[in-house]
Input
Amino acid sequence: MPSEPTRSTEKQSAPLTRRSRLGRLAGIGVVLLSVAGAFLYLGGWLTPHALTPARFVDAFERVNGIHSGFRRNHAKGVGVSGFFESNGQGTRLSKAVVFRTGRVPVIGRFSFGGSNPYVADAPGTIRGFGLLFWLPDGEEWRTAMINLPVFPFSTPQGFYDNLVASQPDPTTGKPDPGKMAALLARHPETVEAMKIIKSHPASSGFDNATYNSLNAFRFIDAGGKSIFVRWSMVPVQPFVAANTAPPAQGDKNYLFDALIASVHERPLQWHLVITVGQPGDVTGNPSIPWPDGREQVDVGILTLDSIDSDDTSPARDINFDPLILPVGMAPSDDPVLNARSPVYSQSFTRRAGEAKTPGAITPPEVRK
Amino acid sequence: MNTRMTAERQQFTVSMRLLHWLMAAMVLTMLGIGVAMVSSLASYHGLLSMHRPLGILILLLVVIRYMNRRFSSLPPFPATMSSRERLAASASELLLYTLLFVQPLVGWGMLSAARYPIVLYGSLHLFPILPHSDMLYAVLRKTHTVLAYLLFLTFIAHFGAVLFHTLIVRDGMLDRMAPWRVRAG
Output
């Protein structure tokens, strides 16, 4: 920019004394340092022990190592796609476009919990199901569900403490039992949640598992009325209890291979069931289930007719952030839900910039 | 940018001053929201919901502000400023305009590359301006952080220079942009 012409008239004042000049300089220094200090405070630099998204993901990396290009959690997975056909029943609960009668395309990803992208399949490992609904006007609904009936932790800190306690001891290769016992003593809600989880037998495969939102959300209807809900994907495929015996020939991908085979045989289907909370139901704690007998509304059927390896599916590069919600849905006050969004984002940002390594389930394995 | 002036102009025009203070408040708020949201587990979603529309509003306003500046007469630099200071002031002004224009575009671009919906409010959202590419996202995400720090440092330098001129040199530097009317001296 060219400089502007000089101002011709000039105000002159008596020169500042040395003392008042120094005082004014100090004042300017204090003002600038305060602004910089406020910036540092807001950015968390002055509270190095507070839990932040970056420190959360650091803990995943410290405990499990870094697997280049993979999700920091739920690293092993496959992509799927299909459509959701709404029956219109959901429109009385939420004005979200997804509940209007009709069909919307979806893309999803089945995964195992944990940071190891080559972990051996086991029915006891947490199964995850991320799903993205493409709504007709460009809106999206993303959700990430798991096959547990409740979440084992009531707060982000509880999850973090468990992650740190589960770090394998370098000598034994296993978590220190003393640390785990101390953790459970500090988090009685985890003990309670584990009892509920143990009372629900795991299903034999990805295709016949129920996947739960765990966290509560708010649904807002056309009149502006707001209710609390949780949701589940309930399989049409009949439940078969998991066989706990290890697979023949030690096939490390046998559960994914079974999923691939069943999608090739026929499309897989789930009912999307919304559970409606009542006043007084706990909405801010995913480790506590709602009482039995809550109204359940079947709002439509999800059909998955296509499956793809992580290496070739667009789902690999999608962040299934559970707070990407369409109009008509909103987060609850659940601290775990609110923490998932920034932690997923942090994990996504880190892996996005890394070189991609081939996944455990290869593209030919998915095509066969 | 424009050397047209009236001999008696002591201050930037009313519209320039209005845009300056409005954007100053918005940009400082944005920098605060930006650093707070990436370090927050509890408030990330709420802050991000404000960050996107505010960023796009800044992008719109900086274009309006640039055009407005192009076609306005400007008050002269105070005589107390050396030619080197004037060069620094002009360069930092250009840098601020550039950052205020580029930073929201990088934000928009990085959300596009990550294949995130670019929600402004309710169901109102913007179209993506880049293809889905996680590597592109990673680069733009880093760029967004670096530009934010650069913007903050440029703001501190700008603020410090005005305070220095106003309080130490006492050349009435702040009067040129003061939100109130300053009578010709």
Q: What stands out?
A: Chain B touches chain A through 61 residues (CB under 8 Å). The longest strand of chain B covers residues 118-121.
